[in-house]
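Q: What residues go here?
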């Protein structure tokens, strides 16, 4: 039996091994490609489903909050930033609705208090008799019917005492005004206590005013202050001596919160300036149309969401909500890393429009996209591991088959060589025996040579 040369046998064996392996590899690569495509489609569908859920949940939460604001049941806490009344196309802030001066003006209308204050001012500015003016202010502080009038009279009295170099008496009067609540304020919603604090700083009494300012911030008085009050508060904090070990740490902590509130107020004032041109017509349509509920984004990230609520017989109310505070409780497992993006942050590759009720707002779902990629990478590793296992088994089986084939080829070669060798070795003695046999026959018959009984080859 003849076998092909070793190189040809190796080529045929490798070809027989490579064709099935190539088929398996091709099928696995196709499966990986299909699985990747399906994973991308599933991730996109899950993303769309999650965005729809976020849209519906956020819209429902904001509409409930707007209903509470319009009905007067909402508390001034996150995510609500402001609830502003719309009058003559402009936004009216809370510090503009009921100015504290109204109560003070009613008190000034009382003849006795008005007469005493007028006499004090005449004695100070016309007659130049500070003692008589101080006595009149002292009496006015006693007969005042509310804290605004009493605080005003004491501020004037303390000013006169300080001008007369009666510092202890002036400090005592300023301390009484400093103790008044922040709701006792002037026409600009600046607490009278801050005016007293300003004078106390002039008299080098930082610690009392620092404690008072910290108490206002910790007690939530910042939300009731208007821009003038906040600016006055910031000016006082900047004047507190940094070297005072008791005042500086407190003022630094308070300053950070005051700066944050001032940023919110300035952003709200910018909203009021932009409202007539950019938001009014979209939120409050004219001509008796029923407005479609919308929540518009305002500002950069983090953006505010602005909506309008209407009640029969009342002015429209614009509800301003902090987008991140409203959005945070709605995040689910797939949207754990989702963030709202205002108009300045999209369009972009990773941000999608939130929905029809939020035309200016997009959402960025970074975490779910990573989760989908991780899922696909896990499937890819599984396919590659299976492919490697199949190829390994194929290679091991091919090696075992190759070893068995080589063994059979060697055995066949050995058998062939043995038969040839035995045949050769037997042919030589048989020829000699035949020759000797013919010789013996010739010696026995000397006559004519008889034919040999042994056949010739």
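A:
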């Amino acid at each position: 039996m003849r076998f092909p040369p070793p190189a040809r046998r190796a080529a045929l064996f490798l070809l027989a091994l490579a064709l099935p392996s190539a088929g398996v590899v091709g099928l696995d690569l196709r499966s990986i490609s299909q699985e990747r495509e399906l994973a991308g489609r599933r991730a996109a569908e899950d993303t769309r489903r999650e965005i729809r859920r976020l849209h519906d949940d956020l819209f429902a939460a904001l509409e409930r909050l707007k209903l509470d604001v319009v009905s007067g049941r909402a508390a001034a806490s996150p995510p609500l930033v402001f609830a502003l009344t719309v009058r003559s196309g402009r936004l009216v802030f809370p510090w503009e609705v009921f100015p504290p001066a109204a109560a003070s003006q009613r008190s000034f209308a009382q003849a006795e208090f008005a007469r005493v204050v007028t006499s004090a001012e005449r004695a100070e500015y016309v007659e130049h008799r500070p003692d008589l003016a101080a006595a009149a202010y002292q009496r006015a502080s006693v007969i005042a019917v509310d804290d605004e009038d009493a605080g005003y009279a004491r501020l004037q009295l303390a000013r006169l005492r300080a001008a007369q170099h009666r510092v202890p008496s002036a400090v005592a009067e300023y301390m009484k005004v400093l103790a008044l609540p922040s709701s006792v304020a002037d026409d600009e919603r600046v607490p009278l206590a801050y005016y007293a604090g300003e004078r106390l700083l002039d008299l080098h009494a930082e610690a009392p005013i620092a404690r008072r300012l910290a108490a206002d911030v910790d007690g939530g008085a910042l939300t009731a202050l208007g821009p003038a009050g906040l600016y006055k508060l910031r000016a006082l904090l900047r004047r507190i001596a940094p070297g005072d070990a008791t005042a500086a740490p407190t003022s630094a902590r308070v300053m950070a919160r005051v700066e944050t509130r001032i940023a919110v107020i300035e952003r709200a004032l910018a909203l009021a300036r932009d409202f007539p041109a950019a938001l009014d017509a979209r939120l409050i349509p004219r001509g008796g149309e029923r407005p479609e509920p919308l929540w518009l984004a305002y500002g950069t990230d983090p953006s505010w969401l602005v909506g309008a609520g209407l009640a029969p017989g009342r002015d429209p109310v614009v509800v301003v909500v902090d987008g991140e505070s409203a959005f945070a409780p709605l995040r689910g497992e797939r949207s754990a890393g989702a963030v709202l993006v205002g108009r300045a942050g999209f369009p972009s590759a990773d941000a999608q429009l939130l929905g029809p009720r939020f035309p200016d707002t997009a959402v960025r779902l970074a975490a779910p996209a990573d989760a989908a990629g991780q899922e696909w990478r896990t499937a890819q590793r599984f396919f590659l591991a299976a492919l490697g296992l199949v190829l390994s088994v194929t290679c091991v089986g091919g090696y075992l088959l190759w070893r068995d084939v080589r063994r059979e080829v060697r055995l066949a070669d050995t058998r062939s060589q043995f038969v040839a060798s035995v045949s050769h070795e037997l042919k030589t003695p048989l020829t000699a025996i035949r020759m000797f046999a013919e010789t013996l026959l010739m010696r026995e018959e000397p006559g004519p040579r008889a034919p040999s009984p042994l056949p010739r080859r």
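A: Context that may help when evaluating the design: The beta strands are 80-87, 90-92, 296-298, 304-309, 317-322, 339-341, 351-355, 358-364. Residues 100-109, 367-372 have pLDDT under 50 and may be disordered.
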